[in-house]
Amino acid sequence: MNYWLMKAEENVYPITLFQREKTTYWDGVRNYQARNSMRDDMRKGDLFFFYHSNSKPTGIAGIGRIIKEGYPDHTAFDRKDVHYDPKSLATNPRWYMVDVQYVKSAKRTIPLEVLKQNPKLRDMALFRQAQLSVQPVREAEWKLITGMKDWW
DNA sequence: GCCAACGTTGGC
DNA sequence: GCCAACGTTGGC
Length: 152
What we know:
Elements: E1 3-9, H1 15-21, E2 23-25, H2 32-41, E3 47-53, E4 59-72, E5 96-111, H3 112-117, H4 125-128, E6 134-137, H5 139-146
The protein binds a DNA duplex through loops.
């Protein structure tokens, strides 16, 4: 079982919408490292932190589960889609996505600042590669964060 | 809205 | 292969 952190802009896809929809596909990732994680490493049943960026505060808003492993991101083929990429061909897709299911929300978003203050979380990818929208989370980090009673 | 960090593109 | 220009991410 692997753990992940996936970022969504709150004004684009808030966790309240995820909760209503229950399942969705995670499209629009256009970074190779994030793509590789989704295409090669995510497994059905893996859990992830749903992270709100561009929000007040930014931070972990909830938890989701991977329910379908990597497959071509069709929004890259759609000329009218904001994530259209003419270099991604149906015969040779460049971008991948996964299907995800809502699991639960934090009582309140756990702010980035709170995570930063915990010395045990210092090595999280979140701080080392701030711009990466899909990133692995270590089991110890997962357990520590999900065990923060005030927030769940 | 600003801007630092960082990834990608393309000329050479 | 280098690197400047450019675009995007995301915190603030």
